[in-house]
Design a protein that fits this description.
Radius of gyration: 22 Å
Number of strands: 9
Shape: globular
Strand order of the largest sheet: 1-2-4-5-6-7-8-9
Order of helices and strands: HHEHEEHEHEHEHEEEH
Strand content: 15-25%
Distance between the termini: 89 Å
Helix content: 25-40%
Largest sheet: 8 strands, mixed, barrel
């Protein structure tokens, strides 16, 4: 005689599977986690680099014009470059470097030690930068994360203040879903927290077109935070409101040895002055 089993156990297993799937889905949609959803056509989270949106949004022009003002060559790097040949860069005239340390509150650069220490060891003045993702967490949270993972500062004459890299969102809407006022508040929270932790005003890296779109061209930071402008053309162009000059200029992503090359607006002693505070 056949035995008729109750459907209770089967329904229980189905319910358990449903709960597990719901849990996994919640992980995939949580911002700032290793399980964050990866939309087709967008880069993987953590892979953002300084200036990655410049050409797509602002285009690319000619080489920088010659100028009578002395400028000091620099580079910026991330995990994309892997182990960098710092000796070759030094011999080519590069005297300062920034290395990506962190992104959001979920990523640290696995090549950071080789890049950050390697530039220092060949004689360069070096610093660290943070790629901001304001939709993931507060400015204060990300400043703390940055300082805790390589973004600090020391008065050794060889360490530059940290950089807030605030630009187009490679993973979604350009302004990270924030209003202009909300973006200004987020940046202020980051810079205020960074200064409270290190005693230094963070450098702000941005592009004029992004700054105009996403902060309403705020002039709130020009008197306190050095400007690093991104523009791949013959000159830095029009600067964001509040700044009368740029401290640094990222002028290309196709330079020798390392693609991203930059000019410091002054001689080497001015780079040293920024490092010394």
């Amino acid at each position: 005689m056949p035995v008729h089993r109750s459907g209770t156990a089967g329904r229980g297993r189905i319910a358990a599977v449903g709960i597990l799937l719901a849990f996994l889905t919640s992980l995939l949609t949580m911002p700032g986690t290793a399980f964050a959803a990866h939309k087709p056509g967008t880069p993987a989270r953590g892979t953002a680099t300084m200036g990655m949106g410049v050409i797509a949004h602002d285009g690319q022009g000619g080489a920088p014009h010659e100028t009578l003002a002395t400028q000091t060559e620099g580079v910026d790097v991330s995990n994309y470059q892997g182990n960098v040949n710092w000796t070759t860069l030094w011999n080519s005239g590069v005297r300062w470097a920034y290395t990506k340390a962190t992104e959001g509150n979920y990523y640290t650069n696995p090549s950071f030690a080789q890049q950050y220490n390697g530039s220092y060891n060949v004689g360069m003045i070096r610093g660290a930068y943070h790629f901001a993702t304001p939709n993931d967490s507060s400015g204060a949270n990300q400043a703390n994360y940055f300082v805790s993972h390589g973004g600090g500062w020391s008065r050794d004459g060889k360490t530059l203040p940290g950089v807030l890299d605030i630009e187009w969102n490679p993973y979604g809407s350009a302004c990270y879903g924030l209003s202009a006022a909300g973006m200004v508040s987020w940046i202020r929270a980051f810079t205020n927290t960074y200064k409270s932790l290190t005693g230094r005003d963070a450098v702000i890296y941005t592009a004029t077109s992004w700054w105009t779109q996403c902060t309403g061209n705020s002039g709130a930071f020009g008197s306190t935070n050095p400007l690093w402008i991104a523009r791949y053309n013959t000159s830095p162009g029009t600067l964001p409101a509040g700044w009368g000059y740029q401290t640094m200029w990222q002028y290309t992503s196709t330079g020798p040895t390392v693609g991203d090359h930059d000019k410091f607006n002054g001689a080497f002693d001015r780079v040293q002055a920024l490092a010394n505070g």
